[in-house]
Amino acid sequence: MTYDRIHKFLLRSIASRGVIAMPEVKQIINSFTEDVDVSPKDLIKDINEKIRPFQQKIKITNDELTSEEVVVFLSLGYDDATKSQNIFSATELEYFRILLEQIMTTVTRQITGIHAINLVSSMKSSFTKTDAQKLLNVWCQMRYLDKDDANYALGVRAIHEFEGYFRENMPDIIEECCLCKQVVFRGCNCPACGVAIHTLCLNKYLEKLQKWPCCMIDFNQAQLDRFNCIGLSQSVRLRETQETICDETEPLTCSSMDVDDGTQEIIPEISQRITRKRKRPE
After folding, report:
1. Which of 129, 136, 153, 253 pairs as cysteine with 219 (C-beta 3.0–4.6 A)?
2. How far apart (Å, rounded) are the C-alpha atoms in residues 188 and 17?
3. How confident is the model at residue 140, as a pLDDT?
């Protein structure tokens, strides 16, 4: 299919929002051209051919938490050209990296809003709690973060844009769900055996049996609520919970982007400049 106005219209819509549900993508296409029956997947394939040289991609995937089919705009570049276009400062990206690591190293893959803001105290740069709150709001709007009640978790955009970053820089914390065998970014670790489980997979399992699927101990929502109330690391939380189990003897359980021939306007995204941690030599 010839790359034309409908491709540019769809690209602009997805890039400006970051994440759009598939039904809404279809509505956008229909509102642009009701007389033509066009497949969203075919349009996205054509668009990706155009934006690939700029290390950008549109991905059709499923939200790990809701299982909803969504379309995500991803920026995968780390080179100097894309770095220079980013709207976030080095200090803001330092905070984002610390935030990602804190979320990924907790049992429930989320941290409280208070803990997220207090992370500024661990930064080398001058950064206020007011600055942090403003950025948290921006990153939720961009779908890099999701806010569940008072807790922050990775949004679907961060999950797919930073999967490579996590695998390279934090391989020890990448875990597969014991049920579906996919990497867990939105989920938890069993408080008894420490095995990782997707939130969605766990909820579906609990509809049939109120036990943890990994070790079959009784499930109690209070176990997860206890984890969410503080911002401890995964290892500390597991150790404290497992000690509690032993003591109690009861089982716990773009704003604007046109791709024309020879010209393009970079969509500024977080991944283009995030600091990559160097591995220590063994």
Report:
1. 253
2. 28
3. 93
Statement to judge: residues 84 and 165 lie in one domain? yes
Cα(208)–Cα(227) distance, integer angstroms = 24
Q: Which of these, 126, 151, 123, lies nearest to 136 by C-alpha position?
A: 151
Name 154's bridge partners.
145
Same domain, 63 and 94: no
User: Which residues, including other chains, have CB under 8 Å from residue 13's CB and lie 6 or more apart?
Assistant: 20, 25, 28
Q: Specify the number of domains making up the chain.
A: 3
In the chain, where does DSSP find H-type helix?
Answer: 5-17, 22-32, 40-51, 80-83, 90-104, 113-118, 129-141, 156-161, 163-169, 199-206, 221-228, 234-248
CB proximity list for 124: less than 8 A, separation 6 or greater? 94
Note whether 85 and 164 are same-domain residues.
Answer: yes
Q: List, for residues 203-232, the tens digit of each pLDDT value.
A: 899 999 999 999 999 998 887 766 655 443
Share of the chain above pLDDT 90, in %: 37
Identify the CA nearest to 145 among candidates 132, 163, 159, 166. 159
Range of the domain at 207: 175-233
**Three-state DSSP class for residue 62:** strand
What confidence tens digit (pLDDT) does each residue in 230-281 have?
A: 443 444 444 444 444 334 333 333 333 344 443 343 444 565 545 444 444 4
The domain that holds 225 is classified in CATH as: 3.30.40.10
Does residue 159 or residue 270 have the better pLDDT? 159
Q: Cα-atom radius of gyration of the chain, to the nearest Å?
A: 21
